[in-house]
Specification:
Elements (H helix, E strand, L loop, with lengths): L23 E7 L1 H11 L4 E7 L6 H10 L5 H9 L5 H10 L18 H13 L2 H12 L4 E4 L6 E10 L2 E8 L1 H8 L3 E8 L7 H9 L2 E4 L4 H5 L1 H4 L1 H9 L3 E5 L14 H11 L7 E4 L7 H10 L3 E4 L13 H16 L6
Parallel strand pairs: 1-2, 1-7, 2-3, 7-8, 8-9, 9-10
Antiparallel strand pairs: 4-5, 4-6
Helix pairs in contact: 1-3, 1-14, 3-4, 5-6, 8-11, 12-13
Length: 346
């Protein structure tokens, strides 16, 4: 059955700069649980919202589907869509449906064990429409998503990195390919170099357009090497972020030493961004002061980068190391309003 693609408004009406003061145009970049957290907060603002999602995942249900169907890994895209579901009975129900994970009987072949329903819905739309972007637009319409979800590239990407660890007092450098392998290895050593494969992969044109036309581009939170950094490793995306007239905001994680970034200090996360994208000016960074390991040093590094630090309590009271959507939304609004009111020049 052919789906009439004209039924979906693919692009929201463009706003001229003079018209954007009452409604921010925001692009959020990341993947996984980190992007899910930022989108849950950003959708609470009066904003024209676009999510740009990493497509280098090779683990779990998403990785299995990627290998078996030869498609983009749908898992992070699914999570972004579910985060944007409207806060209504329809939206909340579909968010749960999209995230439903199958559990099979112990004596079954278990071929469906661990798969997520939303992944199959997205792949079905891709196969019917033959277009990754249109498939995600259709999924967003079904879910009543308060924003648009785009893949950072229409090429399934792989991440490669070098991890240095000590053995018998000597440094050993090992190269790992794949998001899962790199994340596990990073826990045992220090990541010294990362890149995306294929190296000549192109960014999704609609994603480049969204970055270029935004008022704000928001990076993070999330796994620094495998969710945040890929957007700066893809040449088209990095160039678009650097050349965009939008301001750039980095949202810090609630723990500096995550599973894949063991041993990193809070300030090191900013240094990594500067190392891989020296041409990108970061206007603001948002951090929960209770989660920084060295606040003074963090502020010094940010100041040296020409970046203004905003502190706010954004951690959930109920769950440790989890962002509270309402608190994070209020913090985002404060940052955006501060710049809009002329609180910071340039």
């Amino acid at each position: 059955m052919d789906i009439p693609t004209h039924a979906i408004p693919l692009v929201a009406p463009r706003l001229r700069p003079s018209q954007r003061r009452s409604r921010w145009k925001i692009t959020a970049l990341g993947g996984g649980h980190g992007l899910h957290a930022s989108l849950k907060a950003l959708r609470l603002l009066d904003a024209d919202l676009t999510a740009i999602v990493t497509v280098a995942d090779d683990g779990g249900s998403s990785g299995r589907i990627r290998d078996e169907f030869g498609v983009l890994p749908p898992g992070d895209l699914r999570m972004a869509l579910s985060a944007l579901c409207d806060d209504s009975e329809w939206g909340r129900t579909w968010a749960r449906v999209m995230q439903h994970r199958f559990t099979t009987l112990p004596d079954s072949p278990r071929s469906m064990e661990g798969h997520v329903l939303g992944n199959f819905l997205i792949v079905t739309l891709w196969e019917m429409l033959g277009d990754a972007v249109e498939g995600l637009n259709w999924a967003g319409q079904l879910l009543g998503a308060r924003g648009r979800v785009l893949p950072m590239s229409t090429d399934p990407l792989r991440i490669k990195g070098t991890v240095v660890r000590e053995q018998d007092g000597q440094p050993i450098a090992e190269v790992y390919e794949g998001q899962v392998a790199l994340a596990k290895a990073a826990h045992r050593g220090s990541v010294t170099d990362i890149c995306l494969l294929p190296e000549d992969a192109s960014a999704t044109p609609q994603a480049v357009e969204a970055i270029s036309e935004a008022d704000w581009n928001v990076l993070g939170p999330g796994s620094w090497y495998t969710s945040v950094m890929p957007h700066l490793l893809l040449n088209d995306s990095r160039r678009a972020l650097a050349e965009s007239q939008a301001r750039t905001l980095v949202t810090m994680n609630l723990s500096s030493s995550t599973f894949e970034a063991s041993g990193l200090r809070s300030a090191d996360h900013l240094k990594i961004l500067r190392r891989y994208a020296p041409e990108l000016h970061i206007d603001a960074v948002l951090a929960d002061p209770s989660t920084l390991d060295d606040e003074a040093y963090f502020c010094q590094v940010a100041e040296n980068m020409g970046t203004k630090v905003f502190f706010d309590r954004v951690e959930s009271k109920a769950k440790e190391s989890v962002h509270d959507p309402l608190r994070l939304a209020a913090a985002y609004k404060d940052v955006f309003s501060h710049f809009e009111s002329g609180g910071v020049s340039g």
